[in-house]
Amino acid sequence: MYRYTEFDQSIVDQRVAQFRGQTERYLAGKLSEDEFRPLRLQNGLYVQKHAPMLRVAIPYGLIDTRQLRMFAHIARKYDRGYGHFTTRQNIQYNWPALDRVPDILADLASVQMHAIQTSGNCIRNTTTDQFAGIAPDEVVNPLVWAEIIRQWSTIHPEFAHLPRKFKIAINGARTDRAATLVHDIGLTALTDQAGNVGFRVAVGGGLGRTPIVGVVVREFLPWQDLITYLEAILRVYNLTGRRDNKYKARIKITVKETGVAEFSKRIEEEFARTQSGPTRLTRETVEAIGARFTETSYLPLPQDDAGVVTLAASNSEFARWLKRNTHAHRVSGYAAVTLSLKRKGVPPGDATADEMDAIALLADRFSQGELRVTHEQNLVFADVEKRELPELWRELKALGFASTNIGLIGNIIACPGGDFCSLANAVSIPVAAAIHDRFESLDYQFDIGELDLNISGCINACGHHHVGHIGILGVDKNGEEWYQVTIGGAQSIAINGSETARIGKIIGPSFARADVPDVVEKLIQTYLGLRERDDERFVDVVARTGIEPFKENVYAEAN
Amino acid sequence: MPKLIDHSGERTGDPWITYAGDAHAIPAGACVILPLTEFREFAGTWKNHAKALGVLLSPSDNLELIANDLDKLRLIAIDFPAFTDGRGYSLANALRSRYGWRGELRAVGDIQQDQIYLLSRSGFDTFALRDDQRANECVAATDDFTHAYQWGADRFGARPGPQVRYGA
C-alpha cells in the first residue's frame, strides 16, 4: 500500500477544491452542459439513467481497511447503502446527488483516495494482477511501477484532452492476470539475463467495438526509460489519433491505420529525442516511492498446516473452497484468499456498506489490514496465514462470501448493464442471475471446470465479453434486447508455448434473453461431450476443435 | 478583441494584430500574426511591412515547417478550435522543450478558465480568452495546484509553475 506524503495529499486536496468550484459554476449556470461534461468525467462523475454515477479510483486495485470503511461510509451517507466493484478495479456508486459529489471527493481525499481520471478522454486508472507482490510465478513486483505510472499520469498537463480514453495495464508474472494485451498499453515487467528490470511494451490492444490484441513494440525497455517511452507513445497518439469520429479515436485504430511499423517508428523517433530528458527515472526516485509502501511482515511458518489438511479431509465444502478460493503465495505458510462477490440474487461485484465493514474487520484480523479488488469483480485477502484458513472460511461463509465458484461458471463477470447504464442496449444483471441459477449446483460447476463467462450490456464491453471463454453481448434489434454469443476468448492462453490474449468468435445469430441459459447449457454439453481429459478446459476445447461443433449443437433445433 | 491575460493579470494594449486575408487592415509598422501558410510564403514581404512577426498554428500543423525560422518570430500562437482538442498541448510542449522556443507562446481560440492551468504547465504564457470568460478568475486558475508530479514545459517560461516532484 502506497502511503501519501504531504505532496500527494496536496494534489488530491486541491483537486477537490478545483472540482468544487467547477460544480458550483455549473449549478449556477456559468458552465454549460458541454463544458462541464469533460470536467465531471475526469473527476469520475457520469450522468446515468436514474442518477449520476461516481466512479472512484482504486489504484491498481489495492486498498486498506480504513479506505474500505470510507467506501462503506460513503455508501451510507451519500448513496443507497451499497457500492459496485468494477472490472477495472474501481468502485462505483449509482445514486449520488451531483451537488454532494465534491463532499464525497473530500471524504475520499481524507483517506488518500480520489476519483481523478476514472473517466473521460485521459489516462485512466492503471490496473494490474490482483496477486501482485505475492504470486509465486512473479518475476518483477509491478506495484511500485504501477504507482509511478499513477503519479506520472495524474493531472498530466499534456494528456488531459486525448482523442479518447487511454488504459494502461501492467503485469509482472509469468501468467498474465492483468489482461495486458487488451489495453491501450500493456506492460510486462521482466528481467534481462543480467537481472536488470525492464518492460515488454505492447500497444493498441482493446475491447469495445473493435476488439484487437495489442502488438509488442519493445521487447525490453530498460526501467529508466519507462516514463519517457510512455510519453512518446502518448504524444504521438495525442497528435495523430483521430478526433473526427469517436468510434475510431482509440489508439488501436491509430496503430491499425498508420501501420504498426510506421507507428512504432514514430514512437522511437520521439523517444530518441527525449530519452535523456527530465522524465528519465532514477534509482533514487524508484526507491523513494518504493519506501512509501507499507511493509508486509511474515512469520516463519511451515508450508502446510496440519489443521487445514485435517479439515479438508473431513469437510468437502472446505476442501472445495481451498481448491477454488485460495491461491498459492510466494511465502511459506501463507495463502491468498478470494472473497466471491458472485452471489445468488446479488449483481456481480456489489457489496453493501455493512458487508464492507464486516470485510474490513476480517481483513484487519486475517490479512494485515489490506485487500485487493480484482478485475473479475471479487476481493482478495493477499496475506493470510494458512493456519487461520479454517477460521477465515467460517467467517466468510457466515457473511456469504465463501461461494466456491472462483474460476468457474458461477464467477460471472457482468457490467451494470441496462438496469443502470445509459449506454447499454440490454440488461446484464438479470442475464447473469438466470445463468447463475441454471448452474447453481456446485457439483455441476466443478465438473465443468474452469470457465470464464463474461457479459456486457453493450459494445463498449465493460464486462469484457470478448475475452470470456463464453462471452455474451447485449445488442439492440429494433428496440428489443437480444444477445450475441462468442466463444473461445481468453485474457491469457498458452498458444504454441507462448502466452497471448484471444478474442472470442461469434457463433451465429443472436438470441432472445429467455433463451440465453439454454444456449449456455448447450455450449457446456457440447464441451463435455468433446472433452478428452478432465483438465482440458472449455476454452482449450474450442481452441482445438474450432467453433463449428458448438455452433451445430446450439442452432440444431432451429433448423 | 478577446481579453488577453498572463500569469500576473490582464494585459492591456496588446500590440498584436492577426492577419485574416486583408492586408489593408494591417497598418505599416504593426506587430502581425500570420497564419502558417502566409508566413511560409510571404515572410520576406511582411518583414519589410511589419514591426514584428508572429505565426498562428493550427493543431494539425507540422512544427518542422517553422523550425528554421524561429529567429524571425517574436510570438507563436496556437489555436484551440475546441477546448477538448488537446493537440495544442503537445505542440506547445515540443516548441518549448524540443525547439527551444523562448518567446511568447499564446493560446487562442476556445480558451476558458478550466484549461488555463494545463495550458500554463504546457508552456503557454499568454491566453487570449473566449469572450465570456472573466479575466481575474482565469488568472487565478494558473495557481489551481501548488504541487505537480510531472515536469512541465512551464519550466522554460517566465514564471515557474508548481513545485514539481520529478524531473525538476
What kind of sheet is the major sheet of chain B? Answer: 8 strands, mixed
What gap, in angstroms, lies between the N and C termini of chain A? 57 Å
Radius of gyration of chain B: 16 Å
* Terminal CA distance of chain B: 37 Å
Q: Kindly report the average pLDDT value of chain A.
A: 95
For this structure, the CATH topology of chain B is TIM Barrel
Overall mean pLDDT of chain B stands at 93
Fold and architecture overview:
The complex is a heterodimer of chains A (559) and B (168). By secondary structure, chain A is of the alpha+beta class. Chain A folds into four domains: 6-109, Sulfite Reductase Hemoprotein, domain 2 (Alpha-Beta Complex), CATH 3.90.480; 127-289, Sulfite Reductase Hemoprotein, domain 1 (2-Layer Sandwich), CATH 3.30.413; 306-399, Alpha-Beta Complex (Sulfite Reductase Hemoprotein, domain 2), CATH 3.90.480; 413-555, Sulfite Reductase Hemoprotein, domain 1 (2-Layer Sandwich). Chain A contains 18 helices and 23 strands. With 168 residues, chain B is an alpha/beta fold. Chain B has one domain: Aldolase class I (TIM Barrel, Alpha-Beta Barrel), CATH 3.20.20. An eight-stranded mixed beta sheet of chain B has the order 2-1-8-7-6-5-4-3. Chain B has a two-stranded parallel ribbon with strand order 9-10. In chain B, β7 (104-109), α3 (113-121) and β8 form a beta-alpha-beta unit. In chain B, α3 (113-121) crosses α4. The longest helix of chain B has 14 residues, at 36-49. The N and C termini of chain B lie far apart (37 Å). At the A-B interface, α1, α2 and α6 of A face α2, α3 and β9 of B.
